[in-house]
Design the sequence.
């Protein structure tokens, strides 16, 4: 890129979780670009892979409006939260983290055995009552491990033990599940089309399943994890026996504490890559080919990121048009990617930096590393 030639640059990062929002990352990236290439035209489009941040993306780049409603967090405490209503479509995008999100709770309040998606279900009920016939559910960032049973309960379903008594909310009691009763499920929920924006590949059960992969970060002890795994097995068995549906090895079934597996089984939900959904809703695929250079990134870019996280999806789209892409990551051991010759990865954290320190200095590290890379690009006229 030459300094005095106007270059069109798309800035499309995800958040650096725990330190910087996608919007903050985009602002820092633009400042760095303008300092090195003052004549460049920057288009800032902070994005999301379908989980946290999706509402902001839709509000900025899609046609519709945010709807506020009374809701509940993962511990059933009353809150106010929003979902996105698509104009003239009878469709709504619900962001699970707005109600059952990990960031809504203090670390000392984390309770993966009792945390529930019930509040998300109440928000969905509000959207259904408004006449929405298609529900998109973005499921990243949850504090729950209840397999979506809270959502189903809020919509009129019941989860019963061997004495036909209703189980308490949360994933901690599912090991006692014997029967699922959907006889009083909200009719609108049954008639609606359900699409889950899912950005991970993990199955529901096993070593790479939801309990063993995600429950620890939600506050679970080793014994809690075993109990949740037992509950997942029990849930899968009841679903198989009652409905003839196998969910144990469903790709993506372990996302957001098993919500995707639960709604796939009980509401016939389809699981779709979250980035793909947002790219479609915002027209990103048509826009991306109009740029000369693309900046993207996230807090940690690792092997898991290759299964559909935002930066790799952006890079793949850009590669189709041979557009150079720079992935800026808080942490990454990779510098390039096979089959993506136009993509470069930079790690912003200093060598040997502790995670806590790197998160604390995320802004400074990002600006320093990106400026250095842009100066290299400029000096080599790349």
Sequence:
């Amino acid at each position: 890129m030459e300094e005095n030639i106007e270059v069109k640059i798309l800035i499309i990062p995800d958040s650096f979780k725990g330190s910087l929002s996608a919007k903050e990352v985009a602002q820092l990236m633009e400042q760095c670009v303008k300092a090195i290439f003052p004549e460049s035209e920057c288009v800032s489009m902070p994005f999301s892979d379908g989980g946290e941040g999706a509402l902001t993306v839709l509000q900025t780049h899609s046609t519709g409006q945010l709807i506020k409603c009374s809701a509940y967090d993962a511990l059933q405490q009353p809150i106010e939260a929003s979902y996105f209503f698509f104009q003239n479509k009878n469709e709504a995008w619900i962001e699970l983290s707005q109600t059952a999100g990990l960031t809504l709770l203090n670390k000392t309040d984390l309770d993966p055995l009792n945390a529930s998606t019930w509040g998300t279900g109440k928000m969905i009920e509000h959207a259904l009552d408004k006449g929405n016939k298609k529900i998109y559910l973005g499921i990243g960032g949850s504090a729950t491990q209840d397999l979506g049973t809270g959502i189903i309960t809020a919509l009129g379903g019941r989860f019963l033990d061997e004495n036909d008594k209703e189980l308490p909310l949360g994933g901690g009691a599912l090991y006692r599940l014997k029967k699922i009763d959907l006889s009083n499920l909200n009719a609108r929920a049954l008639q609606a089309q359900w699409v889950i924006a899912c950005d991970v590949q993990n199955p529901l059960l096993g070593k790479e399943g939801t309990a063993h992969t995600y429950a620890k970060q939600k506050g679970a002890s080793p014994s809690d994890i075993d109990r949740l795994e037992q509950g997942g097995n029990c849930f899968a068995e009841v679903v198989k026996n009652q409905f003839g549906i196998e969910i144990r090895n469903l790709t993506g079934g372990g996302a957001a504490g098993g919500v995707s597996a639960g709604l796939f089984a009980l509401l016939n939900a389809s699981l779709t890559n979250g980035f793909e959904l947002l790219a479609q809703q915002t027209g990103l695929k048509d826009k991306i080919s109009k740029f000369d250079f693309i900046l993207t990134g996230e807090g940690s870019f690792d092997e898991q990121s290759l299964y559909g996280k935002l930066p790799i999806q952006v890079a793949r789209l850009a590669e189709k048009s041979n557009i150079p892409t720079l992935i800026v990551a808080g942490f990454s051991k990779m510098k390039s990617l096979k089959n993506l010759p136009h993509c470069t990865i930079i790690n912003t954290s200093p060598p040997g930096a502790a995670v806590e320190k790197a998160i604390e200095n995320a802004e400074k590290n990002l600006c320093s590393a990106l400026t250095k890379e842009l100066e290299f690009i400029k000096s080599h006229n790349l």
The longest helix spans residues 222-243. The chain has a mean pLDDT of 93. The chain has two domains: 8-46+288-379, 54-275. The first strand starts at residue 8 and ends at 11.
